[in-house]
Structures are given as structure tokens and as C-alpha cells.
Amino acid sequence: MTAPDAGASVDHPVLAEPDDLARLRRLAQEQAALRRVATLVAGGATPGEVFTAVADELGRLIGAEASFVARVDHPSGEAEGHMTVVGSYGEVPVGFRIGLQAGMATTAAVRTGLPARVDGERLAQGPFGAITGRLGLRAAVAAPIVVGGCRWGATVAATTRAAFPAGTEARLADFTELAATAIANARAEQELRELADTQAALRRLAELVARGAAPEVVFAAATGEALRHFGCSTARMIRYELDGTATIVANEGTSGPHVQVGHRWEGYPETGLTETVRRTGRAARVADYHDVPGGDIYLREGLVSAVAVPIHVDGRLWGMIAAGTGQRSLPPDLEQRMGEFTDLVATAIANAQSRSELVASRVRLLTAADEARRRIERDLHDGAQQGLLALALRLRTVAARPDCAAIRDETEDIAAGLREVIDDLREISRGIHPAVLSSAGLPPALRALGRRCPVPVETTVRIDGRLPEPVEVGAYYVVSEMLTNAAKHSRATVVQVDADASGPTLRLCVRDDGIGGADPRRGSGLVGLKDRIEALGGSFSLHSPPGEGTTVRCELPAVAPHDG
Questions:
Q1: Residues linked to residue 462 through DSSP beta bridges, in sequence order
Q2: 3-state secondary structure of 163
Q3: In this predicted structure, what is the pLDDT of residue 169?
Q4: Can you tell me the mean pLDDT for 458-476?
Q5: Computed from CA positions of residues 454, 460, 464, 468, in that sequence, does the dihedral angle turn out positive or negative?
Q6: Where are the alpha helices (DSSP H) in 380-468?
């Protein structure tokens, strides 16, 4: 084995050159900055917080006095003509909208997909002229942000120095390329949260519809969900009527004298959202109501900008939902987000409207049937009954004549039979439609039912004045049917009837102490009662455990529905 040469030099690590150290330091700083941004994303930060963090880290990395992240706008199908600042470090405000003009570093970066710089006077001539002059900025660099293969936006940095050092564009592009991953992840997280939030909102609306909530309640709930979902200061729903007018059906947030829910929506500008959506059937945006003739009404309400999207139901333009704010800028993708939300909400609106139309149809059928009963009752009373009564009187007259002694007994028997037929007709006509209900109202009619019932009835009525006729008829038939059931089937010893209309609701309770076990599925009239009460916008509940009697409770609106 050969011994090492004592005079030979020993290898030592070569020290890095200063430039290498600087590159390593910059790389470490970039990695640390990206880790901080990634930590924000993993912690569930909103996209706005992530964008601001990217702008802040970028400004510190390259020594810029101002930096920002801007997103390309595509409102209403517009081409790539504008960008909106979504995150800022320095003086450029979030929400500031930038027109992509020739000669701007931002324009060059977005349209070429390459980093670009602008120095000197050209910087002061663009849309940042006022900010540039106030801060003394003299140079700017920009790099495109590519997300999902598309040019999503750009990062921009500016300095008071005459120019950024050579290689700044490359550093900016490298950092931006890596930051784009964090931006994409933040967007994905936000989209998942919005999807979950949307699904939860739709579940709440579906539950309302399933419970039979009135359309007005569903409209208000959907508008409230939109207000919460999109974070604006106002949301309202407008319905377009077939006669060319519009009705405001719900409003959440700011308001004013012109906002009267349930009434005509009038006085809106010809170039505003309501008319634009009606005319085009597409989403519309007002960037600033100061620029809209007739927009003062909204400015007084505290609104500056707004977005509206159409609501289509069964292929027809049904109306629109609008969201507004007191700021001069709304998110550039708000139309798309609202459109996706509204497309789903339209299903709930259609279901609520269909149910309302079905209920209205059932009410019309009930009203028509009740009118037919009244007409039959009148015809029986004024026609058949009177005719039979006249015949009975004639027979009595004949029987009283001295020359008819031979047939007196027979004619009296016939007259008695006719009286029985008349009594039967009276009972039939009373069951078809009680005259006392039409003439005197519900309280006397319920007391009359109690007097005729073979089972003792304790009747308590607290009703002042008349109720809507369909409500009186519905309540009457509930009590009539339950008293009949108690007499025929329940073996009850007493029935309690309680009717109270001291508020806006008629509360009706019929309770017996019979054997219970009433089951609507066995073909009793209970199903028809339930249908009738629900068709009138009321509720019907039955409690009839075996051996514990039967109780029916109903609630009905004691006031006529308002026709908005």
C-alpha cells in the first residue's frame, strides 16, 4: 500500500461565490414566503386573504414599495379588457379596476404570457398615474398568473428606484409561477366551501317547499340566502308579470320608500338592471349608479353598484335576483356565481309556485262545489220543498171536505207521507249547505250542529263577526263530520267543540271520549276534511289512540288572503 505523499495538498470545500450566496438566500426567502402562503391556504383562508398575502410577500421579496395581484374580468361576456385588483401591498386599493391599455406592463404580461417591465414616464401615463405621482413610483414589472392553463391574472410590483435590477422579471415570474399553485388551491377550497354552502341553502329552501310554505316565504328565504351567500349589502327578487309590469316579491338588506314588498316595482331606470335583464334575458351589471340616469333612487338607498341575474322557470323568464353594495366594485365573477346559484334556486321557486297554483286550483274547486251546494239547497227549498208542501196542504183541504169522508184517512196518510218527504228534503238540504251558516255565520251554525247531535255536545265559540266564507264552510264540515262519527262509531258520552278566532287564525278542536282508533286509511271522511283544510292554507291533525277518544285540531287563516 502506498503511503500518501506528505507534500501533497489536501482537498478542502470550495467557498461559494457571493453571487451564489445571494441566489441561495433569495431561493430560501422565496421558499419561506411560499410556505407562509401555503400555510394560509391550508388553514382555510379566503381567496382575498391569500391574494393579499401573495402581494405582500412579493413586495418584500423584490423590494417593491407597492405590489398587487389582479384578476382578469370577464363580466357579461366581455373580452379581456379589464382587470380587478384582488390583493394589494401598498397604496393600490383592492377592487380597483384597470383597463388593459397598450404600453402597460400588465397588458403585455396578460396578452403575451411573459413578464414585462415599464420605466419612466410611461408608468405615469397609465391608470395608476395618480398613485404613481403620489408615491413617486418610477418603475414597474408584471408577470402573468396562469391557473388551470388559462391566464387568470397578473402580479405587479412598482418601485421608487429608476429601475428594478436586471433579472427582476425572472424572479417575479418564478415566484408567481409557484404562487399560482397556492392561488389555484385557494380557489378550489373556496369553490368547495361555496358548493357546500349552496347545497345547504338549497336544502333549507327544499325543506320550506316540502313543508308547504307560501311562495312569499320561499322568495324571502331565497333572497336572504343570496344576501348571505354573496356578501353584499342588499339582495332583492323581482318578478316579471305577464302584463309587462314587475313586482318586488322579496327584499333583504337596505331599503327605501320605493321598496314595498308585494307591490308593483316602479320607477326603475330604463338602463338599469330590471329593464336590461327583462330585455336581454341575461345577467346585467351597474358599475356605478352615479353614471345611470335615474340612479339617484338607489344612491339614496346607499347602493353604488349592483349585479342582477335572470330567473328562468319552466323555460320562461320569470324574474331576476339582484345583489348590490355601497362599494364601487363588485367581484368580477359575481354574475357567474349568482347565475349558478339562481339556476338551482329556480327549482325551489318553480316547486313553490306549482304548489301554490295547485292549492289555488283546489280552493277554486272547493268554492265551486260549495256554490253548487248552495244552489241545490236553494233549489230544493224554493222548488221541490215548496211544491211538496203545497200538495200536502191541498190534500189536507180535500180531506177536510164533508163529501170526502170516505177517502179522509187515505188522504191524511198521503199528507203525512209528504211531510216526512219534506222533512227528509230539509235534512238533505241542510247537509248540502246549511242555510244558517250563510245567513248567520259560524257560531250559530256550530251551536245548531251541537243541538241536533244525539251525543251531548259542549260547544265553546269565541268568534267575533264573520270569517271568510270558505273558512266558515271548512270549519263547519269538520265539526259536522266529527259529530257524525262520534254518534255512529265512537260510543262517546260527550263531545267538546272549541272554536277560537281571537287572532288572525281560527283554531278549532273537536274532542270526544269514545273508543278512539279512527284511521283515515279506512276510507272515512277524514281524508276529505284534511284535503279541504289544507287547500284553504290550514293544517289538520288527528289524534285517536285506541281506548282514548278522538281529537281533531285544525288551524285556518281567519283573514282573507291579501292580493298583492
A1: 500
A2: coil
A3: 85
A4: 90
A5: negative
A6: 386-400, 408-432, 435-440, 442-452
